[in-house]
Amino acid sequence: MAGLWLYLRRRKDGVDGDAVAVPYGANGKAIFIVLAVASAVEAGLFWLIDFGIVVDVVLLVLGGYSVLLVFGVYAGTVVRPHVVSSREVRVRYSSFYDVRIPRENVAALRHSKESHDPLKAQKFRDGTWLSRDNFYETNLVAELRDPVTVTRPLGKTETVRVVKFQADDPKAAVEAYERLAVS
């Protein structure tokens, strides 16, 4: 819900100073719209079935909450973009994860479009972490000098040396990274 609040106020989280926002959610917008419409229709259909007024009201409230939740996750992808700055590179997905990589630890940030098998991508393989927010496709690779610890959405941690993630405009992200190089 915090993402929805920031979205309505047209604010971005964590983009200050020399930081450059790197959006990543353009390809997933249609899915969020479909999920929100399906949740709204489902809530309306439950209202047509007579379970009794108390159950009908509870189901309607839960349906409305699910629509808000879907819009909240989408809003989180808009207001919490990846961030490239002179201090760090942040890889995020809504409020589910936020990986902060100190700038000194990034050996290279490069554009490389890859598609990953979902079954193999579930595991952290060879010290590589895949941001799975965009249909298992990545187009940016951050190679690290020293391993970093990544906290997954359900709390498990992994140590990785390579971070792969998706951006709407990967070339602009690489240009911002090079422009803000640590001197």
UniProtKB/TrEMBL annotation:
UniProt keyword terms in alphabetical order: Membrane, Transmembrane, Transmembrane helix
Name of the protein in its database record: Uncharacterized protein
Biological source species: Amycolatopsis alba DSM 44262
TM spans (from-to): 30-49, 55-77
Taxonomic superkingdom: Bacteria
